[in-house]
Amino acid sequence: MNKLIPIAFGLIVAQLAGNALAVPGFLSDLAQDKVLSWQFSPYTLHYHPSDDHKNVVMVGVEREHPDAKLDGITLFTNSFGQPTVYVYPWGGVYRRLGGIEHLSFKWTAGLLYGYKDPYKDKVPYNHNGFSPAVIPALAYEFKPGWSGQLNFLGNAGLMFQLNAPFN
């Protein structure tokens, strides 16, 4: 039952964020000629589980530009229960991976903030809570605009994510 609380909370926040951003003109300007989607992750698999690990819940917004470039922002509780943000101004998506119609390879690069003492050494190159990040992912579109995604978090773990379009 305790695992359902962060999942429900994440879904509620994602829905409310979508409604809050629906201010007339804001989303249309933000997404003009782009695909805007929200992201939600209810679960991260840690390759080396620890008693220090907490549930990771993530919500975010991503834009895909006409040239297949990506940018976005995610808010999440990291593996140690600390509030964390990942801002990625760089990224890309490559569709039809291996000739498979709905399979894509994605990558993002940006800045993480939130890994602080005593866990600051859990991400490389951390300085005062800030660290660079590059996240490769595989996504499968199972319905137009809707996809499941696996984010490869270095040697730490695998994040399961759902992407859905803002309508």
Can you summarize this structure?
Helices cover 13% and strands 49% of the residues. The protein is mostly beta strands and 167 residues long.
Describe the structure.
- With 167 residues, the chain is mainly beta.
- It has a single domain, classed as Beta Barrel (Porin), CATH 2.40.160.
- Helices cover 13% and strands 49% of the residues.
- An 8-stranded antiparallel beta barrel has the order 1-2-3-4-5-6-7-8.
- Strand 7 (146-153) and strand 8 (157-165) form a beta hairpin.
- The radius of gyration is 16 Å and the shape is globular.
- The two termini are 31 Å apart.
- The model has no long low-confidence stretch (mean pLDDT 88).
Task: List its salient traits.
Porin; mainly beta; 8-stranded antiparallel β-barrel; 167 residues; globular; 2 helices
Count of individual helical segments: 2
Helix content: 10-25%
Distance N to C terminus: 31 Å
Number of domains: 1
* CATH fold call: Porin
Rough shape? globular
Look at the structure and give the CATH class.
Mainly Beta
Write the layout of secondary structure elements.
Layout: H1 4-20, H2 26-30, E1 35-46, E2 58-64, E3 70-77, E4 83-94, E5 103-113, E6 130-143, E7 146-153, E8 157-165
Antiparallel strand pairs: 1-2, 1-8, 2-3, 3-4, 4-5, 5-6, 6-7, 7-8
